[in-house]
Write a structure and sequence with these properties.
The protein is α/β, with parallel strands linked by helices and 297 residues long. It has one domain (24-40, 50-283): Spore Coat Polysaccharide Biosynthesis Protein SpsA, Chain A (Alpha-Beta Complex), CATH 3.90.550. The chain has helices at residues 3-19, 30-37, 67-74, 116-130, 151-159, 204-211, 215-223, 230-242, 284-289, 291-295; strands at 53-59, 81-86, 135-142, 146-147, 201-203, 253-254, 262-264, 267-269, 275-276. A four-stranded mixed sheet has the order 2-1-3-5. Helix 4 packs across helix 6 (204-211). The two termini are 36 Å apart.
């Protein structure tokens, strides 16, 4: 073992509690959590051996009926991923200690569909995942989501991507521009208003930026209420305004596995979706029977 390697390992052990929290439960308020999570080191070189991980963030009301499929997906790749679960308050996941989901619930709050609380929960997941400095990519998922490729393929696709995957488009309809509130001006004007899927994926730098945003989040809290749905507009609008060149302008989560052409880095690819959603719990047995074929791709 070289001196440099030994020093890195020793440094990693000393910093462990700070750079890679073992226990996710804490008593920080959202304001405190977002402040803590938005801290960025100025020294670019890490003083420990850092293997970039993908954070899989599950937003669910309670149970994860497809967790057995995810267990197969994660198996054998423990050093390359992290799991975070946001449930309704008071719900405890009933999983074994060997499960990838064991002890991975974060402090939660009530979430109401269509309200700004959906965005709050998504930012809460991002902030908790940012506390682990090894997390480099952040994927938002629901309890009805499944992977459609094996872990090595998904990991390589995300880690090597030059862009984050946020869908953001201008829809000139009552369900798009029609939801814009002119009282958001001059900070957000109609030409900047965007819509998109809430199921996004971010690189670490962009996750920090959006977690640190209070100004635009406040405007959405105040002026985007049903029939304006903040989870469909906040992230697409925010990233369009400030980081448009860094997003692929598409989601990697869809309802089926499709073969279509999309852009990936500087070229075209038919691998456009890594995850699929809206699968019912009773589909688990069939999905597990297909696991060997899917997870090997």
């Amino acid at each position: 073992m070289s001196i440099r390697t030994a020093n890195c390992e020793s440094s990693s052990l000393r910093l462990e509690g700070f750079v890679r929290p073992v226990h996710l439960l804490h008593e920080m308020s959202d304001e405190e959590l977002f402040w803590r999570a938005s801290m960025v080191p100025k020294v670019e070189e890490y003083p420990f051996r850092r293997v970039p991980k993908v954070a899989f963030m599950f937003l669910t009301r309670g149970p994860l009926p497809l967790s057995a499929l995810w267990e197969e997906f994660f198996k054998g790749h423990e050093d390359l991923y992290s799991v975070y679960v946001h449930t309704i308050p008071g719900y405890n996941l009933n999983v074994s200690q060997s499960s990838a989901f064991y002890g991975r619930q974060i402090p939660n709050k009530v979430v109401r569909w269509g309200s700004i609380s959906m965005v709050d929960a998504e930012k809460r997941l991002l902030a908790n995942a940012l506390l682990d400095f090894s997390n480099e990519r952040f994927v938002l998922l629901s309890e009805s989501c499944i992977p459609v490729y094996g872990f090595p393929t998904v990991y390589k696709y995300l880690i090597r991507s030059a862009h984050s995957f946020v869908q953001s488009f201008d829809e000139n309809s009552p369900l798009g521009r029609g939801r814009y509130n002119h009282r958001m001006a001059p900070d957000i004007v109609l030409s900047q208003w965007r819509k998109g899927s809430e199921w996004l994926e971010l690189r670490r730098s962009l996750a920090v930026e959006v977690v640190a945003d209070f100004k635009y989040h406040f405007l959405f809290r105040k002026y985007c209420q049903p029939p304006c749905y903040a989870d469909e507009h906040y992230f697409p609008t925010y990233f369009n305004m400030f980081h448009g060149a860094l997003i692929a302008n598409r989601s990697i989560t869809w309802s089926i596995r499709e073969s279509k052409i999309c852009k990936y880095n500087s070229g075209a690819t038919t691998m456009c979706f890594l995850f699929a959603r809206k699968f019912a719990p009773d589909a688990l047995e069939l999905l597990l029977n297909l696991t060997s074929a899917v997870m090997s791709s």
